C-alpha cells in the first residue's frame, strides 16, 4: 500500500516536471510558428547534422577505446583491478561542466573549441558506459565454454566470432546506443567546448531561446528533438533488454603488457581532473591562489552577478531535497516494475530519460507562465526537476538490486505472523539498504551536476555551481577562468565524495 | 488443531490449478498430498497459508473459517521448498523471527530458539551466517523457524528434495519425530512414496493438471 502510494507520487512528479511541459511545448509549437521557416533559419540544419555526426564519431571512439580495458578487466586478474574499474567508471557521474572545464584546462589553447576537444570529452565520459555494460557481460562468459568450443575444433578467431561475439553483442549494442544518445544530445560539454557552427540541437535550443530570444524557434526544435530521442530510445531499449548474471569468471593472471596498458589508460584519465585542479592555480603571470580566494570571498575582480558561496549552499540543498523525492519514488517505481511486471511503472520511469533536460527546462518556462501556475521563478522548481531528471537513472540502478531480493522472503515472514508493515520494516527495508544507498548516490550526483534544465530555471538567488562555472568561463580574463576552474574542482570533489561515502556506508 | 479444506478452487494467470480439492487432517496427524508435477501441490499449500487467493471453497482451522484471514493472522507455518531463509539474519535470528513478531521477551526467545536448535541438532550453528549452511542444515533451520511460534498447522513443501540419500533419510526421520513429539498438525507435499509412508498417516492424490479453464 505504501509502495502503491509512492508509485502514484512518482507518476505525479513525472507528469508535472516532464509530461505537462513537453505537451505545453508541442501545443505552443503548433500554434505559433512555421516549422519550415524554423528549419531554414541559420544554424538549425547545421546543429542537426553536427549532433548526429559528432555523436557517431564520439560513439565509435568511445567503443573502440572502451573495449580494450573491458576485455582486460573481464578476462584477467591484474594488480589493482577494482581500483582501475572504479577509476574508469567514475567519469560517468561527473558533472558535464566539470568535464568540459577540465578539457578546456587540459588541452592546449589551439584545441579549445574544436571537434577534437568535444569528441575527447565524450570519450572520457562514455568509456565508463562501455566498461560498465561490457565487463559484466564478458565476465559472465565462462572460460570453460570457450574451452568447449576449442575442443570441438574452433580456432581462436572462430571462438571469438561464434561464441564471444554473439554473447557480447546485446551488451555492446546496448552500450553503443546509449553512448550515441548521450553524445548526440550532449549539452554541457558542447556549451563549454563547442563554438560557432559547433552546436548540438540542445545547445541550439538554448541559444535560440536565451541568446536570440527566439522562443518559438527553440520550441519547434525542442519538439523535433524529443521525437528523435524517443525514436532512438525505442530502438535502444529493444536492443538492450538483456540481463547479465553476476560475474563468476575464472580470471587468469594478466601479462605485464596488459597490466601496463590498463594502468596507462587509468593514468591518462586521471590527468583530466588533475589538469583542472592545476589550472585553478595558474594565472597569466604564474602560480596564484587568487581564483580560490575569489571562491570564498566573492572576489571583487570577478564582476559577475553571482555569489559562489550561495551557489555552494544552493547546490547542496537542492541535491538533498531532490534525493528526498527521487530516492523513495525511484525505489517504489523499481519495486512496482519488478514485482507486478508492470509495464506502466517502467514507462513512467523511462519518460524523463526519453526527453533531454534542456527540452524539459524550456518546456517548463514556456508552459508554466500563466496566472497561478506561473511558477517559473519559484526556487522549489529546481530540486523538483532535478528529482525528475534523476528518477530514471535511480530506477535503472536499483532494479537489479530489487530483483535480487527473493519475493518469497516476505511471504515466509507472513507465514510467521508478520503484518505487512512489519514485513516492510524487517525484510524489505534492510534488504533494500544497498539499493537506497545507490539511489541516493545517483540522485545526489545528478542534481549537483545538472546543467541542462537548470540553465533555464535558475534565477540570481537560486544559482547553482554548474551555472557559476559556465558564467565565469564566459568572461574574459584570467581571474574569472581561474575561479571557474576552482569552482569546477569543488564540484568534482563534492561529486566524488557523494559517490564514495554512500558506497562506503553500504559496505559498512 | 484440525485442518479442513472444502471444495477449494484456485486459478493462477488464467489457468485453473486446483479444482474442487477437499481434505481433512485431525489434530496431531500428518496428511500427505501427492500427485505428479504440475498437479498443484505447492499451490494447495500456498492457498492453505493464504499466499494465493482462492476462487471458491473454504479453509478452516478447528472449524473456524480462515479463508479471508490474511496470512500473518492464520498461524499456519510453511517450510518453503527453497527455505527462504532471511539472508540478513543469522541462524538464531531466523529461528526467533516469528517469536519477535509475537512480542516475546529476549530471554524467552533465547530459550525457545535453543530448544529448537537442539531439536534439529544445530546447536553449534547458532550464530552462523545462513549463507554458509549446507543444504541439509538450511532445511533444518527452515523447519525450526516454522516450528518456533508453535503454528496451529505446519505445511511442508517437498522438504527433502535435493538432498542425498543418507541425509534424506536422516532428515525424514527427524521430521517424523519432531511432528510426533510436538503433536503438530501437518500437511506434507512429496512425490516420494517412502516419505509419505514414514511420516504421514493419510494421503490424498491430486489429479494431473487439466486444461479446463
Brief description of this entry?
The complex is a heterodimer of chains A (508) and B (213). Chain A is mainly α.
Question: What's the topology here?
Answer:
The complex is a heterodimer of chains A (508) and B (213).
Chain A: H1 2-32, H2 35-40, H3 44-75, E1 76-77, H4 81-89, H5 96-106, H6 115-139, H7 143-151, H8 156-184, H9 188-193, H10 201-211, H11 215-239, E2 252-253, H12 256-279, E3 282-283, E4 286-287, H13 290-297, H14 308-339, H15 343-350, H16 357-367, H17 381-403, H18 408-415, H19 420-449, H20 454-457, H21 465-473, H22 478-507
Parallel strand pairs in A: 1-2
Antiparallel strand pairs in A: 3-4
Helix pairs in contact in A: 1-11, 1-14, 1-16, 1-17, 3-6, 3-8, 3-12, 5-6, 5-12, 5-21, 5-22, 6-8, 7-8, 8-11, 10-11, 11-16, 12-22, 13-22, 14-15, 14-17, 14-19, 17-19, 18-19, 19-22, 21-22
Chain B: E1 3-12, E2 15-25, E3 30-34, H1 41-49, E4 56-61, E5 64-65, E6 76-79, H2 91-102, H3 106-119, H4 135-147, E7 153-157, H5 165-182, E8 185-189, H6 193-199, E9 202-205
Parallel strand pairs in B: 3-8, 3-9, 6-7, 7-8
Antiparallel strand pairs in B: 1-2, 1-4, 4-5
User: What structural class do the secondary elements of chain A suggest?
Assistant: mainly alpha
Query: What is the total tally of β strands of chain B?
Result: 9
Shape of chain A: globular
What name is given to the CATH topology of the largest domain in chain A? Answer: MetI-like fold
Q: What strand order characterises the main sheet of chain B?
A: 6-7-8-3-9
Q: What value does the average pLDDT of chain B take?
A: 90
Please give the share of residues in helix of chain B. Answer: 25-40%
Number of domains of chain A: 2
Task: Describe, in plain words, how this protein is organized in 3D.
The complex is a heterodimer of chains A (508) and B (213). Chain A has two domains: 251 residues, MetI-like fold; 247 residues, MetI-like fold, CATH 1.10.3720.10. In chain A, 75% of the residues lie in helices and 2% in strands. In chain A, helix 12 crosses helix 22, helix 14 packs across helix 19 and helix 18 runs antiparallel to helix 19. The longest helix of chain A is centred in the N-terminal third of the chain and has 32 residues. The two termini of chain A are 31 Å apart. About 1% of the residues of chain A have low confidence. With 213 residues, chain B is α/β, with parallel strands linked by helices. Chain B has one domain: P-loop containing nucleotide triphosphate hydrolases (Rossmann fold, 3-Layer(aba) Sandwich), CATH 3.40.50.300. In chain B, strand 4 and strand 5 form a beta hairpin. In chain B, helix 3 crosses helix 4. Chain B is globular, with a radius of gyration of 17 Å. At the A-B interface, helix 18 and helix 19 of A face strand 6 and helix 2 of B.
Amino acid at each position: 500500500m505504501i509502495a502503491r502510494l509512492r508509485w502514484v507520487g512518482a507518476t505525479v512528479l513525472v507528469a508535472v516536471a516532464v509530461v505537462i511541459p513537453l505537451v505545453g511545448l508541442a501545443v505552443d509549437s503548433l500554434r505559433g510558428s512555421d516549422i519550415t521557416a524554423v528549419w531554414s533559419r541559420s544554424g538549425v540544419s547545421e546543429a542537426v547534422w553536427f549532433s548526429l555526426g559528432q555523436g557517431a564519431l564520439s560513439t565509435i571512439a568511445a567503443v573502440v577505446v572502451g573495449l580494450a580495458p573491458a576485455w582486460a578487466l573481464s578476462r584477467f586478474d591484474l594488480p589493482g583491478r577494482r581500483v582501475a574499474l572504479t577509476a574508469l567508471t567514475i567519469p560517468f557521474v561527473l558533472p558535464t561542466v566539470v568535464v568540459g572545464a577540465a578539457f578546456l584546462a587540459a588541452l592546449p589553447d589551439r584545441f579549445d573549441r574544436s571537434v577534437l576537444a568535444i569528441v575527447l570529452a565524450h570519450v572520457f565520459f562514455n568509456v565508463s558506459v562501455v566498461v560498465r555494460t561490457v565487463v559484466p557481460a564478458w565476465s559472465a562468459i565462462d572460460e570453460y565454454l570457450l574451452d568447449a568450443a576449442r575442443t570441438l575444433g574452433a580456432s581462436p578467431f572462430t571462438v571469438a566470432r561464434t561464441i564471444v561475439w554473439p554473447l557480447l553483442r546485446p551488451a555492446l549494442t546496448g552500450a553503443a546506443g546509449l553512448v550515441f544518445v548521450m553524445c548526440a544530445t550532449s549539452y554541457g560539454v558542447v556549451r563549454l567546448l563547442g563554438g560557432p557552427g559547433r552546436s548540438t540541437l540542445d545547445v541550439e535550443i538554448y541559444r535560440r531561446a536565451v541568446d536570440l530570444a527566439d522562443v518559438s524557434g527553440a520550441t519547434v526544435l525542442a519538439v523535433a528533438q524529443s521525437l528523435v530521442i524517443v525514436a532512438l530510445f525505442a530502438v535502444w531499449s529493444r536492443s538492450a533488454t538483456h540481463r547479465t548474471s553476476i560475474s563468476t569468471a575464472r580470471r587468469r593472471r594478466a601479462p605485464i603488457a596488459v597490466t601496463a596498458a590498463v594502468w596507462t589508460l587509468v593514468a591518462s584519465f586521471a590527468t583530466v581532473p588533475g589538469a583542472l585542479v592545476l589550472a585553478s592555480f595558474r594565472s597569466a603571470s604564474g602560480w596564484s591562489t587568487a581564483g580560490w580566494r575569489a571562491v570564498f570571498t566573492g572576489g571583487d575582480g570577478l564582476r559577475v552577478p553571482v555569489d559562489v558561496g550561495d551557489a555552494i549552499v544552493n547546490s547542496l540543498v537542492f541535491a538533498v531535497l531532490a534525493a528526498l523525492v527521487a530516492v523513495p519514488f525511484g525505489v517504489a517505481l523499481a519495486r512496482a516494475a519488478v514485482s507486478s511486471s508492470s509495464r506502466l511503472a517502467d514507462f513512467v520511469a523511462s519518460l524523463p530519460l526519453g526527453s533531454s533536460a534542456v527540452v524539459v527546462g524550456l518546456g517548463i518556462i514556456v508552459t508554466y507562465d500563466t496566472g497561478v501556475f506561473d511558477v517559473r521563478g519559484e526556487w522549489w522548481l529546481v530540486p523538483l526537476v532535478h528529482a525528475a531528471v534523476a528518477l530514471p537513472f535511480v530506477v535503472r540502478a536499483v532494479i537489479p538490486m530489487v530483483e535480487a531480493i527473493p519475493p518469497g522472503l516476505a511471504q515466509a515472514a507472513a507465514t510467521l505472523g508478520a503484518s505487512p508493515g512489519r514485513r516492510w520494516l524487517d525484510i524489505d527495508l534492510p534488504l533494500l539498504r544497498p539499493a537506497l544507498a545507490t539511489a541516493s548516490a545517483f540522485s545526489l550526483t545528478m542534481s549537483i551536476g545538472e546543467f541542462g534544465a537548470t540553465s533555464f530555471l535558475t534565477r540570481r538567488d537560486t544559482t547553482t555551481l554548474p551555472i557559476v562555472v559556465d558564467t565565469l568561463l564566459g568572461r574574459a580574463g584570467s581571474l574569472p577562468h581561474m575561479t571557474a576552474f576552482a569552482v569546477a574542482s569543488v564540484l568534482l570533489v563534492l561529486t566524488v565524495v557523494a559517490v564514495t561515502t554512500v558506497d562506503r556506508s553500504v559496505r559498512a | 488443531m484440525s485442518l479442513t479444506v472444502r471444495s477449494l478452487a484456485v486459478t493462477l494467470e488464467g489457468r485453473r490449478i486446483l479444482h474442487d480439492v477437499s481434505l481433512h487432517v485431525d489434530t496431531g496427524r500428518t496428511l500427505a498430498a501427492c500427485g505428479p508435477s504440475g498437479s498443484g501441490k505447492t499451490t494447495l499449500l500456498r492457498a492453505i497459508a493464504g499466499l494465493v487467493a482462492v476462487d471458491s471453497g473454504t479453509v478452516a482451522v478447528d472449524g473456524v473459517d480462515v479463508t479471508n484471514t490474511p496470512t500473518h493472522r492464520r498461524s499456519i507455518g510453511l517450510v518453503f521448498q527453497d527455505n527462504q531463509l532471511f539472508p540478513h539474519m543469522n541462524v538464531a535470528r531466523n529461528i526467533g523471527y516469528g517469536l519477535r513478531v509475537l512480542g516475546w521477551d529476549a530471554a524467552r526467545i533465547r530459550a525457545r530458539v535453543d530448544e529448537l536448535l537442539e531439536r534439529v541438532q544445530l546447536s553449534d550453528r547458532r550464530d552462523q551466517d545462513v549463507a554458509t549452511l549446507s543444504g541439509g542444515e538450511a532445511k533444518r533451520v527452515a523447519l525450526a523457524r516454522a516450528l518456533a511460534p508453535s503454528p496451529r498447522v505446519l505445511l511442508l513443501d517437498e522438504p527433502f528434495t535435493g538432498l542425498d540419500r543418507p541425509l534424506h533419510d536422516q532428515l525424514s526421520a527427524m521430521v517424523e519425530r519432531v511432528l510426533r513429539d510436538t503433536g503438530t498438525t501437518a500437511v506434507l507435499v512429496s512425490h516420494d512414496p517412502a516419505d509419505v509412508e514414514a511420516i504421514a498417516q493419510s494421503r490424498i492424490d491430486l489429479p494431473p493438471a487439466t486444461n479446463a479453464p
